[in-house]
Amino acid sequence: MPHLSTEDSHSAPEPDREARRRHWALFRVIDRRRNPRLRRTDITVTDEPTVRRAVKAAALGNAMEWFDFGIYSYLALTIGKVFFPGGSATTSLLSSFATFAVAFLVRPLGGAYFGPLGDRVGRKKVLALTMIMMALGTLCIGLIPSYATIGLWSPALLILFRMIQGFSTGGEYGGASTFIAEYAPDKKRGYFGSFLEMGTLIGYTGAAGIVLVLNTALGPDAMLSWGWRVPFLIAGPLGLVGLYLRLRLDETPAFQKFEAAQTHAPTGSPARGEEESAHLPANTPGRKLGEILTRHWPALILCIALVGAYNITDYMLLSYMPTYLTDTLKYNETHGLLILLVTMVVLTCLLPTVGKLNDHYGRKPLLMTGMLGFLVLAIPAFLLVKQGSLLTVSCGTALLGLSLLCLLGTMSAALPALFPTSVRYGSLSIGYNLAVSVFGGTTPLVITALMDAFDKNVMVPAYYTMGAALVGVIAVACMKETAQQPLEGSPPSVATKEEALELIASRTPEPRF
Fold it and tell me: Mean pLDDT of all residues in the chain?
């Protein structure tokens, strides 16, 4: 990944070994002595195959995460019977969703740990660690004996491994989205970022597909006995594949540039002092967290509002809808999963197009379209779903899916741009996971509880979705447009050397005679 720089002729070049390791080199484009008005300009020229490898590895990890949570959502009724057999069907379901929510409650702790760690030691190492923990946690759930075998130890172990998953997931999305955003060229960040959310839908689609096949092939008794374990056991080998892909990657250019600036700062300079203090383990976590909370709190609040609205709508459709159709509307379980499966396949195919659209028209128009879509279409969509026929359920799901598509294809490019490179991983991990824990992961539990409190009012999910969308509209109105602009704290990133030279020329003052 070449890195073009206009610099003073007396500046010390980067060591050759460093240039080779980082896949970018410094080229002297113009001598500053000939034009003293020219300020130093660094431009990263991306290497397309490297970017695609980075996107693939990050998206696979995200697919694993949502495969795991999707499996749990689609098997909520079965898991409730296996681990919480006492009481009514509603109590069993609420217990299952409460365990689902437990993983989200520890996610902010994972974000607070892994995020600042990723800003200090690099994105690659932390993403590899979270991948290992996710795979082990998911695999262990598939090995837990049932309540009938070991009693209360069974739900206790389920909660423990869900907490391990939640803690590791706390560093996953923030790191994966940061990784892709820092690799992608400025003009294609939305396009490449959309592949991260494609991993989300692929994970959900894989989960729904496996549950659909198992339900059809095995039947209720076999699923309750042992069939539910199969999807969890599959996640172990998938984790090893994801780990292999991530370990083959290089660190992001933006982080390498930031790290190099700290390492080569002159003695006594503020940057040098910060670099030295960064090696003090006792001070580093507190200093990073303190910087995020004191200097970047406006962007953090905006991130929480955006992610909260986005995740309520996301989990409502992709996690809760199958249970809503089966448990509340008494809809055929196989038909409900099939409709959702087709919806997710269509959304997956359209995601790159949305990524290109937000690169061209901007992040805000696409995000606003999605939020307004949920605000206006939630009631009509649930009224259609309420009718219960295959056609009306499909149409209602499609309305919600198209609104979600605008958010899915845009959010992974918009969120990393809220924060500078030095605190991007940590800030995004903390803000994202706090919002997901409070709003996203609790969505199935809250909706189920509200419906039970309001005499099974089937429109409760629509009202809850509209409230979230209203918050999202306000948040989008407050954010700045970041499409086709460099990430804060990072040099401009382009796709070709020709584009880099053109950008440098546009920034060079015309000579006056």
Answer: 79
Please report, in angstroms and rounded to a whole number, the separation of the first and last CA atoms in the chain.
38
Q: Are 118 and 179 in contact (CB under 8 A)?
A: no
Beta-strand relationship, 3-6 and 41-45? antiparallel
The neighbour count for residue 173, using CB atoms within 10 Å, is 27
Q: Cite the beta strand spans of 40-144 per DSSP E.
A: 41-45
pTM, two decimal places: 0.77
Question: Tokens for 228?
Answer: 């539910």
Comparing CA positions, the residue from 410, 323, 332, 330 lying closest to residue 373 is 410
Alpha carbon separation from 274 to 45, 164, 182, 251, 336 (Å, rounded): 28, 33, 22, 21, 55
pLDDT value at position 325? 84
In 10 A of CB 511, how many CB atoms? 8
Cα dihedral 122→128→130→136 (10° resolution):
-160
What is the rounded distance in angstroms from the CA atom of residue 23 to the CA atom of residue 1?
Answer: 5
Count of Cβ atoms closer than 10 Å to residue 108 Cβ: 23
Would you place residue 284 in the very low, low, confident or very high pLDDT band (cuts 50, 70, 90)?
A: low
Do the bridges between strand 493-494 and strand 41-45 make them parallel or antiparallel, or are there none, so unpaired?
Answer: parallel
User: The tokens of 494 are what?
Assistant: 């382009």
* Residues linked to residue 5 through DSSP beta bridges, in sequence order: 28, 42
pLDDT, tens digit (0-9, with 9 covering 90-100), for 353-379 = 999 999 999 999 999 999 999 999 999
Taking CA atoms, 181 is separated from 111, 187, 245, in Å, by: 18, 11, 18
Contacts within 8 Å (CB) and 24+ apart, 383-388: 383/459, 385/324, 385/325, 385/329, 386/329, 386/458, 386/459, 388/329, 388/331
Beta strands in 7-117 (DSSP E): 41-45
pLDDT single digits (tens) 450-501: 888 887 788 889 999 999 999 999 999 999 999 888 888 777 877 777 777 7
Chain segment 131-168, per-residue pLDDT in tens: 888 888 888 988 999 888 888 888 889 888 888 888 88
